[in-house]
Amino acid sequence: MATAEPLLRQTARVFIAEQFNTSKAADRLFAHRNTIDRRMVRVDELLPIPLAENPAAVDTALTLVELQEGE
User: Fold this and answer.
1) Which of 22, 41, 54, 57 is the most buried (most CB within 10 A)?
2) Which residues contact 3 (CB under 8 A, 6 or more apart)?
3) The whole model's pTM is what?
């Protein structure tokens, strides 16, 4: 996920923040829920374990990636 496109990382973070609610994540990202579903399938493909099994670690890791890119 560290090398994934920023939009995919943002989608994962919003999805986690919205407590895995696709509709709420779609509203926040101004996207269709099917788009969010497709992006989340891709997120799970890129992760060594599914997002649902450890969302806090994924969110923390993505935050660190964002901080590193900001330097």
Assistant:
1) 22
2) none
3) 0.92
